Amino acid sequence: MQPPCLGACSGSLAVPVPLRRVLYSGGAPPRASVSCAAGGGKASPRGKDNVWSVDNDRAAAESARAPKHRRRRRPGGRRLPPPPPGKRKGKDAGSRVLVSGAMLMEVETVLQTQEPVIRPSWDTFSSSLSGIWKGVGAVFSPITAEMEPVGVGSKGEYLYDCYTLSHIEKAAGSGHGSEIRRKTNWVPINPFGEAETQISVYDGGIHDASSGKRTVDLPAYESFDLKRSDVLDEDTFGMEPGIVFFEDGSYSRGPVDIAIGEYDESKYFLSPTYRFEQCLVKGCHKRLRIVHTIEFNEGGANIQIVRVAVYEEKWAAPANIHVEDDTPAELKPFSQRNRIKPSELTGSWKVYEVSATPIFSDETRELEGGAPFVYLCMETIKKRTLPESSVFFGEEEMLDMQDVTVLWLPGGVTAYVDVDKEGILCIGVGWYSEEGINLVMERDYGTDGRLREVRSKTEVKRRWNQPVH
Questions:
Q1: What is the dihedral of CA 144, 134, 442, 100, to 10 degrees?
Q2: How many CB atoms lie within 10 A of CB 288?
Q3: Exposure string over 28-63, b if 16+ CB within 10 A, otherwise e
Q4: H/E element holding 453?
Q5: Cα–Cα dist 399/401, whole Å
Q6: Which residues contact 374 (CB under 8 A, 6 or more apart)?
Q7: Alpha-carbon span 64 to 176, nearest angstrom
């Protein structure tokens, strides 16, 4: 079983404190940064008070009126690189939004209040998950949402896409029931990057007269023997603490507790790193997996998003039956797909939500093999509005890094890590399709570092007219 914490963890849990995002700057590797005013954060030295100034009294009055939780700061922004000569600015018709602030979601009508639902069956979940899955994958920057290299080719060139083949099967495990074993092979491809950003340097592309753009003619999935290719990862997991699963094969994996405690400067080199894997399923034969790798530095006071990996996979055959399948996979690499637009997610949505809330009790943990969950469902109509800020590809403007919350990725995918005013850390993923359906999985952590709630949502875009009263 792969441990939820991939780094060295130390320190006891601290008193609940609010989290806040901070601006990234400096020469360190680019990572999306979120910060909290935890008890483990390093305090800044105070200067001597000026007894002859009324500023001290004014500051004391402001402190007394300040809310319990500190709101986000809005320091100066980070300037994006200027667009190439002759390239249109961001708000022209050909621009694409890459990152933005959080979208506002408000409830318009409650159609069904929260009601308990039956806990999903592990056997049904593992059966839905098992099989041979063909897929594509890519890695994106947590700051700019641009594609990042996944490998290096034989000529030393960076490769930006990959084909994957996953073999997932249920096996008898030790302890609590069966376990799931996954082995993924992969082949990296595409030295040209995302089609709409780097295609101008490629001379062998295909020109699309309807759009006026050129596309790269990448090798097909069937041109590789992925069964004999390199192994990307091997993983085994069961009903581990922190996993929330559903019978259609969707799930959310991550730690139950995040190391948040007193910051010891002598152990500055320790950065607990966690892996959050969330999977959405569409029609039981197609699924999307997004893996966030996040560091919690300075006792949890500084949160940095290290990596965002996305995989879209299609079920091909049963895991325990050998089937010769010559059918084309019809999998388009992420670099050849259009990015989702914020306007596609605005408006009214009918939302069916299933939430899982952990119960922390030593007695039940010994019986269940992990923290048990209470499942509830509800149905609402919600309205989603555009974020306050958004950044267009190639646009030369100031960007407040505190507002970088949502990554707008190719293939209808959204990924976001946000901290609200109450200090709740939310790690979420979304998958929008042209049919007007948006699948969402969100994972919340409280200011004490404990898992608070996991939500699975099916959102249907409201395209019917308002009833006449």
A1: 20
A2: 23
A3: eeebbbbbbbbbbbeeeeeeeeeeeeeeeeeeeeee
A4: strand 451-461
A5: 6
A6: 116, 356, 357, 359
A7: 52
> Would you say 147 and 137 are in contact if contact means Cβ atoms under 8 Å apart?
no
Confidence of residue 434 (pLDDT cuts 50, 70, 90): confident
One-letter amino acid identity for 368? Answer: E
448 vs 308, which has greater pLDDT?
A: 308
* 3-state class (DSSP) for residue 420: coil
Q: Which of 36, 75, 105, 24 is nearest to 424 (CA)?
A: 36
Angle at 31 between CA 29 and CA 34, to 5 degrees: 140
**Rounded CA separation 246/124 (Å):** 9
| Torsion-angle region of 365 (φ positive above 0: left; ψ -120 to 50: alpha; else: beta) | alpha
Provide the 3-class DSSP secondary structure of residue 303. Answer: strand
Tokens of 435: 């049919």
- Pinpoint the alpha helices (H) of 156-263: 195-198
Cα-based distances in Å from 403 to 24, 143, 400:
12, 10, 6
pLDDT category at 339 given cuts 50, 70, 90 is very high
Number of other CB atoms surrounding residue 356 within 10 Å: 22
**What sign for the dihedral angle of Cα 24, 29, 30, 31?**
negative
22 pLDDT band (50/70/90 cuts)? Answer: very low
> Which amino acid is present at 174?
S
Please tell me the distance from the alpha carbon of residue 299 to that of residue 17, in angstroms, as a whole number: 12
For residue 383, give the amino acid letter.
K
Residue labelled with tokens 């939780």: 69
CB atoms inside a 10 Å sphere around CB 219: 11
Buried b (16+ CB within 10 A) or exposed e, 111-124: eeeeeeeeebebee
> Strand, coil or helix: what is 136?
strand
pTM for the complete prediction?
Answer: 0.75
Cα–Cα distance, 441 to 458 (Å, whole number): 9
pLDDT at 163 over 50: yes
